[in-house]
Amino acid sequence: MEYFNNHKKLYITATALFVFLTLLVCIIPALDNQKNYAPLPNAKPLSKEAAMGKAIFISEGCMACHTQQVRNVDMDKTWGKRPSIAADYAGISRTDIWRNTATLMGTERTGPDLTNIGSRQPSSEWNLTHLYNPRILVKESIMPSYPWLFEEKEHVLPTDVVVTVPEEHLTNKRHKIVATTKALHLIAYLQSLVQADLPEAAPKPIFLYKKELKTKTTKDGKEEELDGAPLYANNCQMCHQTNGEGLKGAFPALKDSKIVLDKEPEAMVDIIMNGYSGRVSEGYAVMPPVGTNNNLSPAEITAIMNYVKNSWGNNAPKVSTEQIDELVKKVKK
Question: What's the pTM value of the predicted model, to 2 decimals?
Answer without folding.
Answer: 0.75
